[in-house]
Amino acid sequence: LREAQFSKGYLRNSNFEGADFTNAIVDRASFMGSSLRGAIFQNAVLTATSFEGADVENADFTDAYIGDFDIKNLCKNPSLTGENPTTGADTRLSAQCGPAK
After folding, report:
1. What's this model's pTM, rounded to 2 decimal places?
2. Mean pLDDT for each consecutive 10-residue tract of the chain (101 residues)?
3. Which segments of 5-67 does DSSP mark as H helices, in order?
């Protein structure tokens, strides 16, 4: 899925475990209820994309462009934990959410 384009994608309740979205454009998409465990979003555009209820454990958001409103919601996701098994990136830190409280 590298460099994929999912503009306005309705991707709810999908399984993208371990998917590589590097350099992808995933704007205005909904991953509600989806499994994104271990997914890689390096340098991806994720504007207006919802991760509400999605499992993002071990995902890597390094250098992803995420809007201010969207990053606030992503940082509230309780599954934003772990370390990506492929890249070694800390999930919370890669999303620029800071350490867990």
Report:
1. 0.92
2. 79 95 94 97 95 97 93 95 97 89 57
3. none
Q: What pLDDT, on the 0 to 100 scale, is given for residue 7?
A: 84
Continuous segment of H or E residues that includes residue 92: helix 91-94
Half-sphere exposure for 67 (CA within 13 Å, toward CB)? 12
Take residue 60 and report the two structure tokens written for it: 């890597």
70: three-class secondary structure by DSSP: helix
Name all contacts of 86-93 with Cβ < 8 Å and 24+ positions apart: 86/18, 86/20, 86/38, 86/40, 86/60, 87/40, 87/42, 87/60, 87/62, 89/60, 89/61, 89/62, 91/56, 91/57, 91/58, 91/59, 91/60, 91/61
**Dihedrals φ, ψ of 68, to 5°?**
-55, -45
